[in-house]
Design a protein that fits this description.
By secondary structure, the protein is of the alpha+beta class. It has a domain at 3-107: Aminopeptidase, CATH 3.40.630. The protein is built from three helices and seven strands. The protein has helices at residues 13-27, 89-103, 118-126, and strands at 3-8, 49-55, 58-67, 72-80, 108-114, 130-132, 144-150. Strands 1-2-3-4-5-7-6 form a seven-stranded mixed beta sheet, sandwiched between helices. Strand 4 (72-80), helix 2 and strand 5 form a beta-alpha-beta unit. The radius of gyration is 15 Å and the shape is globular. It starts with a strand and ends in a 6-residue tail after the last strand. It comes from Paenibacillus phyllosphaerae. This is GNAT superfamily N-acetyltransferase. Pfam families: Acetyltransf_1.
Length: 156
Amino acid sequence: MAIRIEVVPAVSPELREMIAKLDEDLLERYEPADIHGLDFTAPSIGDMIFVVAFEDDIAVGCGAIRPLDHSCVELKRFFVDKAHRRLGIAKQMLETLEREAASRGFRSIRLETGKRQPEAIAFYQKNGYEQIAPFGPYVGEKYSVCFEKWMAVRPA
């Protein structure tokens, strides 16, 4: 199994296919109002970096980072198709997005996941993310669990 991770534009059909599968997965766990997606018509969508994982020419995963401020990005829409989980694909995508963030001068990555996604929580903890208080739109959300990883020296 040869996996490749590609940076793709927001209009990529493979990206949209993977996000649709992510939304299906989330709707099995949460009500629509509890899902924090992306507005692909927002002008800021151009500031995001999207990746898609491919096995041969088949999309099997996706993820993105978006700037929160000059030093921090947020990991968004991170997903691996159920049939391709536990094969190291998520780790490859995460490492790619971390490198992309670091190469652009960002020092930390934040993310939000949900209490009904224990596999995601375990994955982020295993990869060096520490739980933090909810931030931004996730403050007060009943299912939100937030994490952060510092890629550079944490400020005092």
